[in-house]
Design brief:
This protein has about 450 residues and is α+β, with helices and mostly antiparallel strands. The chain contains 24 helices and twelve strands. Among the domains are: about 160 residues, Beta Polymerase, domain 2 (2-Layer Sandwich); about 140 residues, cca-adding enzyme, domain 2, CATH 1.10.3090. It is about 55% helix and about 10% strand. Helix 16 crosses helix 19, helix 18 runs antiparallel to helix 19 and helix 19 crosses helix 21. The termini are far apart. It binds adenosine-5'-triphosphate and magnesium ion.
Amino acid sequence: MLAKWLQKVLHRRSVAAVKKRELSFTQHRIHADELSFAAEKVIKRLHNAGYQAFVVGGAVRDLLLGITPKDFDVATDATPEQIRKLFRRSRIIGRRFPIVHVMVGPETIEVTTFRGGKVSSHNELGRIMKDTSFGTLEQDAMRRDFTANALYYDPQQQVVIDFHHGVDDIRNRRLVMIGDPLARYQEDPVRMLRAARLSGKLGFTVDNNTAQPIAECASLLQREPPARLFDEVLKILFSGHAQACLRQLQTLHLNNTHPLLDALLPGAEGNDNIVALALYNTDQRLREDKSVSMGFVLAAILWPWIVKRWNKEKAAGLRGNAAMNAAIAGERVQLDKSWGVPQRYSVVMREIWMLQPLFEIRRGARPFRLLAQQRFRAAFDFMCLRAQMGEIDAEVVSWWQTFQHASEDERTQMIRSAPDQDNSTTRSRTRRRRRRVNTTKQETA
Ligand code: ATP
Ligand code: MG
């Protein structure tokens, strides 16, 4: 109790003692030409119109770390309406806090007005429900999550403005929450996931005071809108360091809080399960600048759920194909509603899953039909993952590998001599069905 009180008082004192620090080029070494064309253009136009404007957040942090930023955010004292007037290709988004998306060529810059010191409304648990007050640069810095994310870079003056020792924390590779961490997690529980993602991705240690309240607040995530959690999970998956971020989720005690996070956790360790394998491949591909299909990765992450249900349906007597349809239909509400998987991904996932039983059928015209499917390649790659997990015989994989690249004649020949796993089960089922029909007929007679 006393320790908690002391911690709070000390924290308040450190916040009150915060002084604005301006770093010149020789101290920060960020070159203005490291900004994207769009970020530079947006800042220049805001300056020319008489407003303050800075690159803020992750981009400044990454530039100080020598990492190429993946996007640029801008903070300004212009209001959303004033920003809108300056940029023809822009729109205001965001319900809890308005943000302006400014489109320049293919790039989108997120422009936010400095947030004020006051939050318009909280719920009974302290969560911010609405936040429309605008404020000063200093107040805006207070409202950001971590000290490393509260740095402002002005490319014209070539200065970095730091209110919370963010530059020192970056140099010491520490993630430190601004203000009282407990209250900041209560205000917005997603900050806990951000702590796991940023520390995992950047290899930062999470400061003790910042890490400590997480276990206590973790259950607040259950009350977050599924779509927002899903967005954050996507950021973890797309970070290029998904496995490291998941390990941080465990270290920070964020496991057992949400089914979607739990579905991801087997991916944190080793390569002996399909989730880990898919995430390892994703990290590799992203680091090599290759494309990644999110539908495919999600299909792997949620496969253990589907396969369990699929086996149950098969045990209840349904054929591979029908059992898969039933399994997917049975899990649909969970996927769409509880986990907030958007339709653009769930469609791809379902198609990949639905094609899996068809790889077992290698007779008749079916292999040709499967090959002609738009989603064949993704489904085949998925089947290879399953084979690596021992779910499918390596012989089946090499058969399909050869079949894809064979000539028409060779394919016909392959089909004639293919082992016929699924047809044999179908035949025995047909025999069983016939027997059942005969018994019923006898009973009626
Ligand atoms: P990334 O490199 O993954 O984009 P980022 O820190 O830039 O990391 P964004 O989601 O782009 O993350 O957010 C931009 C900035 O907005 C952050 O750096 C931080 O200053 C602020 N921010 C984002 N989310 C929150 C939050 N939940 N609470 C407080 N500040 C936030
Ligand atoms: Mg960012």
